[in-house]
Amino acid sequence: MTTRILTGITTTGTPHLGNYAGAIRPAIVASRAADADSFYFLADYHALIKCDEPARIQRSRLEIAATWLALGLDTDKATFYRQSDIPEIPELCWLLTCVAGKGLLNRAHAYKASVDKNIEQGEDPDAGITMGLFSYPVLMAADILMFNAHKVPVGRDQIQHVEMARDIGQRFNHLFGNGNELFTLPEAVIEEDVATLPGLDGRKMSKSYDNTIPLFGSAKQLKDAVARVVTDSKLPGEPKDPDSSHLFTLYQAFAAPTQQADFRAALEGGMAWGEAKQALCNLLEAELGEARERYHALISKPADLEDILLAGAAKARKTATPFLGELREAVGLRSFRSQAVNTAGEKKKAGKSARFVSFRDDDGSFRFRLLDAAGEQLLLSKSFADGKAAGMVNKRLQSGEALDIREQDGGFGVWLDDECVAQSPAFPDSSACQAAIQRLREALAPAE
Ligand code: TRP
């Protein structure tokens, strides 16, 4: 079975070397595994929660898209899209909002931190807090549950959000799943051995500390940034301690083991810091030089990037559109056409509340059941590769066309175009089977 990996990148900044080593590089590597089915997306709706500068949002979306592509993300294999190109996500977000406990969201760290800060400053607890910030974890749950992701690689600060997605998904399954898992429950993945890079000052490299090394700046910008990496004041010729040097940590994140050993020996042997910085520049240039060329080529053709992302969105929606259809069914937003109506106030016996329930099987295929008024299963469909095909068969069964019912395997099958599309359970005897066929006919009889 393939593992579906999904992660989002909030589009508020320009990627730096820390993002590259800590998130982008491992994600691209993971997407190449034979059993991986990766969904990577630009979380631009999330960006709106944090940023109200349209130009910055737009610039960041473009830069992040170009960065991932320049670094070799294969969009034939992975699904790469913008959150805001998938209208099913905000729609699902609403369905989830209706089951997410307010108390659960009250406990979200990011929201709580804002409240605490307000209180500390003697402000109203909710000063400056938007509903976007409060509901941030629900939107994130929609991102994840929409595609039934198994694994969600995130930074530590996001673990709680993935757990909330699990909670919310579980509650939805419980309320509307009829015993089936509508949603796969996701797991956060923290890559333990991935480098957290130190920034210029030795603290974690982060935009908020203003200590970053640009990923695709010019060779000169790279050199200038590396020149600002803080070192101790040991003179050339004096032995240096690699293990207390951020310069060494940075070097290590991009060097092969033998290069690391050589660099360590050279520092211990008294290599000058200036020389060591030059070695780091050379290493980074070798790692990123070609990708930088590709990045600038991509950035200069935004229309091509647009096409790539729209193709990614179309691919993602192939899954999202039918799945959202099932979820709408599950919560009761159903077509009136499929309703066994009773306009004259007359009760149609079994048809009154017989109903179809669509679900996804463990192998990802689409199926449905028909339950009678008492909730007993009348039919279980075969597996369909996509939701649309399942939906078509479902529709035809409800269309009132004559049913081809054949007794088989101790129960009966329903046939369409010479194929058995759904089967009943086995019955203890033939009269039970006949009674069930009768209930089925009533359930599927055209409404008068
Ligand atoms: N909130 C995440 C962050 O700031 C970004 C994100 C949005 C995300 N939706 C997601 C990550 C879904 C993983 C899965 O890093």
Architecture overview:
- The chain is an alpha/beta fold and 448 residues long.
- It folds into 3 domains: 3-192 and 301-327, 3-Layer(aba) Sandwich (Rossmann fold); 216-297, Tyrosyl-Transfer RNA Synthetase (Orthogonal Bundle), CATH 1.10.240; 335-444, Roll (PH-domain like), CATH 2.30.29.
- 47% of the residues lie in helices and 13% in strands.
- It is built from 15 helices and 11 strands.
- It has helices at residues 17-31, 44-50, 54-70, 88-97, 102-106, 109-120, 131-146, 159-176, 219-227, 246-252, 257-268, 273-299, 302-331, 387-398, 430-444, and strands at 3-10, 36-43, 79-82, 151-153, 187-189, 355-360, 366-371, 377-381, 404-408, 411-416, 419-423.
- The chain has a 6-stranded antiparallel β-sheet. A 3-stranded parallel β-sheet has the order 1-2-3. Strands 4-5 form a two-stranded parallel sheet.
- Strand 6 and strand 7 form a beta hairpin.
- Helix 2 (44-50) runs antiparallel to helix 7 (131-146) and helix 3 packs across helix 12.
- It is elongated, with a radius of gyration of 28 Å.
- Tryptophan binds at residues 6-8, 10, 43, 46, 140, 143-144, 152, 154, 158.
- Tryptophan binds next to strand 1 and helix 7.
